[in-house]
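Continuing from the previous page of notes. For each protein in this section, the sequence appears first, followed by its C-alpha cells. Read the first protein now.
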Amino acid sequence: MTAEATAAAWFAPVVVPICLYVAFTDMKQMRITNQAVAALVVVYALGGALLFPLSEYLWRWLHLVVVLVIGALLNARGALGAGDAKFLAAGAPFVALSDVAEVFYLLAACGLAGFAAHRLARATALRRLAPEWESWDSGKRFPMGLPLGAALSAYLIIIASGG
C-alpha cells in the first residue's frame, strides 16, 4: 500500500461521516456549517501531521489557501456559496496535487449525479420523507454539499482501495 493509500485509509473513516453531515445539512438547511468545515481542517491538521512527511504536510496547506482564494472570488461573483467555498478549501489538503485532474472529473460526475438525484427526489413522493428540507423549495439554488461531500468521500475511498 502506498503512503497516499495509507493516509486515505486513515482519513476516510473520519472524513466520510463529516461529508455525510455536510450533505445532510446542506439539503436540510441550504448551508454548510462552519463546524463541519473546521472539523475537516482539524482532521487534516492532526492526521496529516502524523501521516505525511513534513514537507508534504506543509505543502498541502497551500492547497487549502489556493482553493480558498479561488472560492472567495467565485463567491464574490455569485457563482458559489460561501459554505461551498470553505468546504472545498478544507477538503483540498486531502487531495494529492497529482490527482487534481481526476478530482475535477469526480466533482463533475458527483455534481451531475447529485443534481439529478436531488431534482428527481424533489419531484416525486420521496420528498415527503423529509418535507421540511429547505432545498426542496430553493428554486434554482442547489445544495452543493451533496456532490462536494460525495466527491471527497469517493476520492478517499478510491485512493484507500489502491485506485
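Done with the first. The second protein uses the same format. Note its length before scrolling.
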Amino acid sequence: MTDTTQSRTTASTLARLLDSDIAWNFRHSWTARISSVLILILFAAALFAPMLATQNPYDISQLLLLDSELPPAWVEGGDPRYLLGTDEQARDVYSSILYGLRLSLIVGFASVALAAVVGISLGLLGGFVGGMVDGAIMRVADILLSFPAILVALLVNGIARGVLPPDRHADAAIWVLILAIGLTNWVQYARTVRGSTMVERQKEYVQAARINGVSGMGIMMNHILPNVLGPVLVIATINLGMAVLTEATLSFLGVGMPATQPSLGTLIRIGNEYLFSGIWWVVIFPSVVLVALVLAVNLLGDWLRDALNPKLR
C-alpha cells in the first residue's frame, strides 16, 4: 500500500468518525464537552506534574520546615512561592496535588484495566461455555456482590499486607491498591459480557464460524468479543471514577498510599487531622480536585452510555 493510499484511507476513516452519530451527539452535548475538557486538563496536569510543580513533595531535601503550615498566597501570611499554601511537613499543597493526582490516576487506570481483563475473560468463558463453568463463575460473582465493594477491597488489602513483610508495605502500596480495587470491580464486566455473549453465540455468524471449523477460542476472541465491547467501554469509563474514589477512601482510612507518597486520599486524610486547627487549605483543595475528577468522569460515562444506546438516539 502506497503512502497516498494510506493517507486516503486514514482521511476516509476520520471523515466517517466525524460524521458518526456519537460525534454528532458529542458536538451537541455541553455536558460531554465540558467534562471532556476538565478531564483533559486534570490528565495533563498529572502527566506533566514534574514540569508544572514548584517542588517534588516526595524529595525531603526540597522541604524547608520553616515554611510549614503557610496559608495560600492570597491569604494574609501567605508566601507567593506556595500558591495553595503548605502542610505540616512544608510540602507545597499545589505540588502535592499534582503528584497525588498522578498516583490516583495510575491506580485508577491500572485497577480498571485489571478488572476489565479478568471480568471480560470470565464473562466470555462463562457465557460461551455455559454449564458448570458458567455456574461456578456466577456463584463467585454473586458472593462478591453480597459484600460492599469497600469491604472486599479492605479484605484483599489486608491479606496482601499480611503476606508482605512490614518493611515492604510502603513500596508495594500502589500494587496492593491496584490488586484490591481491580479484584473488587471485575464482577460488573463479567456479568455484562456474559449476558451479551449468551445472546451473540446464538446468532448465525457464530454458527457459520463453527461450521467453518473455527475453534471456540477463535470465535470468542475474533467474533464475539468485538460485539460486546460497547457496554464494557461505558462500564470502564464510570469505573475509573469509582476506582479513584475507592483509592481515596482506602488512603483516607490509612490503608492506602503512605504519607511519604501521598495520593489525593492521603492528602485529604492528613489535612483532616489539622482541619480544626485552622489549616483548612490542606484538605479543601485536594477534596475539590477529587470531586471535580470523579464528577467529570461520571458525567462523561453517563453521556457515553446514552450515546451508545440506540433506543435513546
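What the second structure shows: The CA atoms of residues 170 and 192 lie 35 Å apart. The two ends are 38 Å apart (CA to CA). We return to this in next week's lecture.
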